[in-house]
Amino acid sequence: MQGLTQATLEFVNQYWAPLVCGLAIVAVLPLIVGYVVLVERKLMADMQARLGPMRVGPHGLLQPIADAVKLLIKEDIIPDDADKLVFWLAPVLSVGAALLAMAGLAIGPAFQIAKDINIGILFVVGVSALGIFGIVLGGWASNSHYSLMGALRSSAQLVSYETAAGMALVCGLLFAGTLNMTSIVQAQHEQGMWFGLLAPVAFFVYLVASIAETNRAPFDLPEAESELVAGYMTEFSGFRWSLYFLAEYTNMIVVASVATTLFLGGWLRPFPRTHWLDFIDFLPPLLLVAIGVYCLMRTPKQPARVQQLFMLAVAGLCFTVAVVLAAPVLLRTPFVNPLLASAAKPFYEGIHGGFWFIFKVSAYLYFFMWLRFTIPRYRFDQLMRLGWHFLIPLSIINVLLIGIAMIAGSYLHLEGGWLLLATIPASIIALIVALFILAMEQKSERQQAGGAAPDPYA
Predict the structure, then answer these.
(1) Within the chain, what is the greatest distance between any pair of CA atoms?
(2) What residues does 108 pair with on adjacent strands?
C-alpha cells in the first residue's frame, strides 16, 4: 500500500499540470459549447430577421445555463428492447473520444496538454475518428430501424470523407516535415507563409471533409429530421442526448483547431515576420475595447437593473482583458528597456498566441454556421458522389502535384512566398483534372440513364 501511495504521489507530482489542464477542459468545454450554440441560434435568427433567445438573461446570455439545467432534469428513457449497457455507453464513447482529442491540440506556444507527443496531428485525427463507434453503437443498441439507418449512413459518410481529409492533411505535412503540432506552427513561422496559401486546394478539401465528418449541414444526412426522425439519436433523450450534442460541437472545435494549426498558422498573427505590419499586434486589445464600449452604450437601454449590472460587468471584463493583451505589446516597443522586453516576450507569445488561435477557430466555426443556414441539404447519392467522385480524386492528384512542386522548388531554391510560383500552378492543375474527371463521370451517367427503362417510382 505504501508503494502504491508513493507511486501515485510521484505520478501526480510529475503530471499535475496536464491533469489540471485536462480537468479545466472537461469542466469548461460544456459551457463553451453551450455558448457556441447560443451564437449559432443568434446567427440563425439574424439571417431570418428575428431576435432569437432573449428571455433568459440580458439578450438571452443565460439561455445555455437554462438549457443545461433542463436537459439534466429531464426523464431518462431507455427503450424496453434496447441493449441497455451499449445504449448507456455509446454516447459516453462519442464524447470521450472528442474530449480526448483535445489533449493533442496546441492552443498556444505555452498551452498543450500532451506537450511531448511527436505524433500530435496523427493522435488528434485518430482519436477523433473513434467517435463514429459511439454513433454506430447508439443506433444499433436502440433496436430501432430509424436509428440503425442513421447509424449506417453516418459510417458510410465518415469512410467517404475521412480519406479525402487525410490526403488533404498530407499536403500540409509535406511542407512541415513533422507530425508535432508545435513544430508545424514553427515551420509556418520560418517560411513566413501559411500552408493554406501554399496549398489552397488541400485546405478546401479539408474544409468540406471536416463539415461532412462532423455531420453538419449540408451534409447532416445521419440526422436528417425530414427523412430519419433525427437519425441515430432518435431514442435518446435528456442527458444522453446532450452527450451526443456535446460530442458534435467538440468535434467541430477539434477539426477547426486542426485546420487552424495546419493551414492557418496556428497561434501566429497574420504576416508574423513582416515588421512594418507590427501594428496588427494592437488589434486584439482594440477589439476588446470596442466591445466594452458597445456594452457601455447598451447598458442604459436594459429594462432591468440586474441586466444593467450584467452589461457593466461584461464591459469591465472586456477592458480588463484588453489591458492584459496590450501590456506585452507595449513592453516590446523600442522605448522599453531591452531586458524588460525580453522578459515580456513569453507572455506576449502565450497571450496573443492564444487570442489569434481562438480567433481563427471562431472564424472557422462561424463558416460552419453560415453554411448551415445558407445551403440546402444534399441527397445521399449527391453526398457519396461528391466524396468519391470529386474530393478523393482531387486530394490524391493534389498530393502528387504538391510533391512534384516541392521537388521543383528545392531545385530552384524557392523559399517562403516564392514557393507559390511552384505550388499554385500545381493546385490549379489538380482542380482542372478533378473537374474533368467529374464531368466525364456525369456524362457517362447521363448516357446510361438515357438508355435505361423509365422508373415509375422516380
Answers:
(1) 83
(2) 111
Q: How far apart are CA 256 and CA 363, in angstroms?
A: 9
Give the mean pLDDT of 186-214: 88
Q: Which of 4-8, 65-69, 70-74, 126-130 is predicted least confidently?
A: 4-8
8-state DSSP, 74 = S
Quick one: 136 exposed, middle or buried, by C-beta within 10 A (0-12, 13-18, 19+)?
Answer: buried
3-state DSSP of 202-220: HHHHHHHHHHHHCCCCCCC
pLDDT > 70? residue 331: no
| Radius of gyration of the CA atoms of the chain, in A | 25
Q: State pLDDT tens for residues 78-95.
A: 888 888 888 888 999 989
Phi-psi region at 305: left, alpha or beta (left = phi > 0; alpha = psi -120 to 50) = alpha
Q: CA 154 → CA 80, 101, 164, 386, distances in Å?
A: 25, 20, 16, 15
Q: Is 200 helix (H, G, I), strand (E, B) or coil?
A: helix
Query: How far apart are the C-alpha atoms of 165 and 211, rounded to whole Å?
Result: 10
**Predicted confidence (pLDDT) per residue in 428-456, tens digit:** 888 888 788 778 877 777 777 665 555 55
Separation between Cα atoms, residue 127 and residue 97, nearest integer Å? 6
Q: What pLDDT, in 10s, does the model give residues 294-330?
A: 989 988 887 778 778 888 998 999 999 888 888 777 6
Place of cell 478539401: 205
pLDDT of residue 310: 83
Cβ atoms of 317 and 291 within 8 Å: the answer is: no
Q: Which pLDDT does position 455 carry in this prediction?
A: 53
Least confident of 4-13, 107-116, 236-245, 417-426: 4-13
Please report the DSSP string for 239-284 in residue order. Answer: HHHHHHHHHHHHHHHHHHHHHHHHHS-TTPPSSTT-GGGGGGGGHH
Give 273-304 as a DSSP string: T-GGGGGGGGHHHHHHHHHHHHHHHHGGG-SS
**CA nearest to 243, candidates 134, 104, 361, 139:** 134
Neighbour-count burial of 233, counting CB atoms closer than 10 A to its CB (0-12 exposed, 13-18 middle, 19+ buried): buried
Helices (H) and strands (E) in the chain, counts: 17, 0
CA–CA distance, 356 with 188 (Å, rounded to integer): 15
Q: Which residues contact 97 (CB under 8 A, 6 or more apart)?
A: 127, 128, 129, 130, 131, 133, 134, 247
